């Protein structure tokens, strides 16, 4: 064997030795981490089988030997809050972890309303963001992945970050305000581990064992163990979308003439139709078509606006948009949910006539501009309202695009990839914001949600693990008469889950937005979760952690008397007006709006239309607009029904 080949083999052997023999740590066990106080904390990792590993922390040395599986672990004795500290892990190599705090660690999970970050909510919280510097709040985001075959031992990336005005924009808004409130209350470090994914249903977060109790979901999970099926669906999704958008671009009249595309300032649009924005073109002469529709408006600016930078707010648009100012593209958004906030660079606007053009792509449902959102241009200290008439014209009509099959939302996948790798990390509790994706099938939510809570407690080996969650906010249009509501049914399932010990619920039916499934008020949500945590997780029995919860009813002639718990200092009408959103029914089960008043911390409900009442419902709607039963501490009553 040549010297050169022998040297190459030696180097390869050394590389392999370093790769497989070196002590390796999970991503969570890293610089800036927060360790759970007052609990036995596990520190673990990987190395060669039989390798001696030592962990040195706060002048104490812990020693262990790697097992046959290549995994080693030690347990730290319960620690008091404090830090920063360093930790050294040594085997054939040595790793030092710095800037470690000891405090309370919370897992934050659910779907997009937990995922929604401070950047998205920033218009509501400029002062909070500017003053957010806090080295005692740390944040770790778990990469978004799925796996249907095996619970993963590790996540592929992520790091602990300390909160400041630059890093906070990436953080979950709900989680941050929750942590901030707890920090201000207890003055201990708070660690946040965010494992959430937009659009995810509850069944995606349940492990295989408990999922077997739900054959429909379990069988779906088994289907997706086939990598060929996944590749096939991904290919179909990709090709279907590619063909649709390619056809749209080729057909769009707005791009047909390269000399005068429809975003050009030179284009003449006298013959275009007119439509008031905000609104949907399905309600106009154009009708319910899909494809690309172009909108155009001319605004006149004064000399002070010439050359100045500007901000353009275009509410929300269904589904995608490209925005041109004086023929120049200033922004684009590819899906319907984000608020449209575009910066117009200096030098683009001018004194006199300026042209705004919006190309809207709609692939399904009603296309257009969501009402009750801001539509304005702010330049040189002045704000110009853009609502009102715009010119518009259809660029290309297309058939509706078949919806994508979202593999990442299928049962089991998110537990295996995003929760299983985290269960070794000791936590104080869980905050959970989810349910929107299950709202169209609410009847099995209680069973699924309860199974998930029990499942997570088993995996963390913390049977009393505090599990705190957000009840769905108000959403969709208010209804004039009492009707059935899937959102109300799902809220009821969430309410019923409180029978599980060490659980708590934050009611948010007063801080949603009827036209946005992602309401921006996340500060109140986080603070209400903090109140629940103070009672459930921190044992403060004096705190009023919840609004009124229905307890029992008594029929007294033509009136029903309702009793509540969690009334705090007493029941009140929040706005001082008569109680609203109460409905009553007789034996026929037909609900009508009712009168209601507070008497000696109970609520009396009646209607002249129902002489022999049998049941009451409160705030039983997708969007129970005007629901005003609160306690004096300012927390809203949960929706409920007495008819089961």
Describe the protein.
The chain is built from twelve helices and 36 strands. It is of the alpha+beta class and 644 residues long. The strands form eight sheets. Strands 1, 3, 4, 6, 7, 8, 9, 10, 24, 25 and 26 form an eleven-stranded mixed beta sheet that branches. A hairpin with a 2-residue loop joins strand 32 and strand 33. The longest helix has 25 residues, at 227-251. The radius of gyration is 29 Å and the shape is globular. Mean pLDDT is 96; it is low at 1-19.
Brief characterization of the structure:
The chain is of the alpha+beta class.
Topology:
Blueprint: H1 3-21, E1 34-36, E2 41-46, E3 52-57, E4 60-65, E5 71-76, E6 82-90, E7 94-110, H2 112-115, H3 118-121, H4 126-130, E8 134-141, E9 161-163, H5 173-186, E10 190-196, H6 208-211, H7 215-223, H8 227-251, E11 273-277, E12 279-280, E13 290-301, E14 310-314, E15 317-318, E16 320-325, E17 328-333, E18 341-344, E19 352-362, E20 368-369, E21 375-379, E22 382-385, E23 388-398, H9 413-419, E24 429-433, H10 445-460, E25 467-470, H11 486-496, E26 503-506, H12 523-536, E27 549-556, E28 559-565, E29 571-573, E30 582-585, E31 591-593, E32 595-599, E33 602-606, E34 615-618, E35 629-631, E36 640-641
Parallel strand pairs: 1-7, 7-10, 7-24, 8-10, 24-25, 25-26
Antiparallel strand pairs: 2-5, 3-4, 3-6, 6-7, 8-9, 11-23, 12-20, 13-19, 13-23, 14-18, 14-21, 15-20, 16-17, 16-19, 21-22, 27-28, 28-33, 29-35, 30-31, 30-34, 32-33, 34-36
